[in-house]
Amino acid sequence: AGALFCTIGGEEVRLDQPGDAAQADAAARRVGRPRGTLAQEEPRDFVRPEPAPGGRVREYWVQARSVMWDIAPTGRDQWHDRAIRGPRAFRAFTYQLMNPGFASPAGPRAIPGPTLTGEVGDLMVVHFRNGEEKLEQAVTMHPHGVRYNPEYDGTYMGDFTRAGGFVAPGEEFTYLWECTPDAVGAWPYHDHGPNHTLNSFRGLFGMLVVRPKGERPPDVEVPLFLHSLSPPVTGLRRAFQTINGRSGAGNTPTIEARVDQDVAMHVFGMNNDFHDFHIHGHRWKDSGGAFVDTPTVGPNETVTARFVEDNPGRWLYHCHVFSHQDGGMAGWYLVGR
């Protein structure tokens, strides 16, 4: 495996040893607020988007916070009945759902962040706050799939950066994202500030879902982010293969459904690797209408396993890259009658 290099504010930072994250964070702290002089050459005043006729405003309050995160809180992998030894906790960066006005937490600090949903015609209004002094750097929210103008891209671009691309500690910004017909599906969102690669690796990501107008949501719907947590990211002695920031069956999400329920599992690649997603005892149609049971998902790609449940029992789901599944990228799917 080759070393990972990140460019942060013009500095090249190597990420292949424990402790390298501290150098990346230091580089990110040195990135000053962009002057925006080059951005002013582009249109300064964009038309404020509104919901389409029949649509509505979907309003969310989300803040970036850090948390000490245990990668395997049970201390065991139930599949192989083995202990997961050694230190497992690290300081993760997370998105946290808040009540209106950031009045109080509406959800935990967790990996992944809150799921944001909308229907075709809606406007997602996402109030974002960089709410944690321990982050000590600018972070953002950058969405995939939805429509937005450059003001709401949430991307740091040096002197081309617009307001939503640099949200410093203690600051807030409101993103406006349109749910257009071509946005139907499940998409990731993640940090795209100056230190976006490292911050995404350590937990600043989540899912947004756009449905056709009036479509009934699935009975069971879960995001599953396939990724790894390596020593340069965590400062721990070993790497963990993870789903939603957890490693080993019993720590990764245990998904429960019943026969005849509509089930949707949205699977995302959230590191540099390609993954395969497999559910024992099940198959489903891909976007082309072919039946599959082990589709491939690459970095920041999404595949959805959606089917009507008809096969009760305890099932494994996992990445079928063998080193990933045996390293902890697996979980339980429990189907009752």
Features:
single chain, 337 residues, mainly beta, five-stranded mixed sheet, four-stranded mixed sheet
Ordered list of secondary-structure elements with their pairings:
Elements: E1 4-8, E2 11-15, H1 20-29, E3 57-70, E4 76-77, E5 82-83, E6 89-98, E7 116-119, E8 123-130, E9 142-143, E10 172-178, E11 185-190, H2 196-201, E12 205-211, E13 220-229, H3 231-234, E14 240-243, E15 255-258, E16 262-269, E17 275-279, E18 284-285, E19 291-292, E20 296-297, E21 302-308, E22 313-319, H4 322-326, E23 330-336
Task: Provide an overview of this structure.
The chain is built from 4 helices and 23 strands. The strands form 7 sheets. Strands 15-23-22-17-20 form a 5-stranded mixed beta sheet. Strands 6-3-8-10 form a 4-stranded mixed beta sheet, with no helix packed on it. Strands 7-12-11-9 form a 4-stranded mixed beta sheet, with no helix packed on it. The protein is globular and about 60 Å long.
